[in-house]
Amino acid sequence: MPLLALDALSKTYGALVVTDAVSLDVAEGEILGILGPNGAGKTTLFNLIGGTVRPDFGRLRFEGRDITTLPAAERCRLGISRSFQVPNPFGGMTVFENALVGATFGREPKDPEARALHVLEIAGMKAKANALAGGLTLLDRKRLELARALAANPRLLLLDEIAGGLTDSECVFLLAAIRDVHASGVTIVWIEHVVHALLSVAERLAVLNFGRLIVEGKPREVMESREVRSVYLGEDAHG
């Protein structure tokens, strides 16, 4: 049984089909990377999984349980947590207080203070625990975004373009932290435009285009597929 199962998941806004009958399984313990051009429906897919958006059609199951209509807060308590593409911490609160929010309202919130300090250490932010989040650099906001998501003690972690805007050297630390999180037993689904960062950790790739899942499989096979070359290079997928 997959940890997460999407069955013909669809979402439209008026005449615009944003997610078009996406069916996808995520195995426990894997790192699944999701690629696609801008407007492919990647973030909407995360919103559907996280519960901030309701699907028009289709079902979601987590550990075999139907969570299609479950509110986002309840999904978080079950073990689904996410980062956001644009970090938006509580600017008037400290780094520690931001992490504490996730630790207090996440899965099995035992000793939230200790949990908050633990995830800040994982994300490399423990030394800045008392700093106001509103004054952080982009790299530190990304690190705090990771820490806040981890503070909820997830079984499934959704990362939305967490490497976006960072230099190659800044990505190195972030990748090391993600590898450590995965090694601790957390399943990861990661949307990313920084393809080389994603390819360095992903065990499987899925590619979306115009809301549809067009290909999935081993990273090398996916990147060499006609469908992906067509999307990114404009080549004829049927040639």
The main pleated sheet reads as: 6 strands, mixed
Reported by name, the CATH topology of the domain at 4-89 and 157-233 is Rossmann fold
SS content category = alpha/beta
Q: How many strand units?
A: 10
Oligomer: single chain
Radius of gyration, Cα only, in angstroms?
Answer: 18 Å
Spans of at least 5 consecutive residues with low confidence: none
What is the string of SSEs from the N terminus onward?
Answer: EEEHEEHEHHHEHEHEEHH
Tell me the strand percentage band. Answer: 15-25%
Query: What gross morphology would you assign?
Result: globular
Sheet with the most strands: spatial strand order? 6-7-8-3-9-10
Average pLDDT score: 93
Model description:
By secondary structure, the protein is α/β, with parallel strands linked by helices. It has a domain at about 5-90 and about 155-235: Rossmann fold (3-Layer(aba) Sandwich), CATH 3.40.50. Helix content is about 35%, strand content about 25%. The chain is built from nine helices and ten strands. A six-stranded mixed β-sheet has the order 6-7-8-3-9-10, with helices on both faces. Strands 2-1-4-5 form a four-stranded antiparallel β-sheet, covered by helices on one side. α6 (about 170-185) links the parallel β7 (about 155-160) and β8. The longest helix has 16 residues, at about 170-185. It starts with a strand and ends in a 6-residue tail after the last helix. The relative contact order is 0.18. The model has no long low-confidence stretch (mean pLDDT about 95).
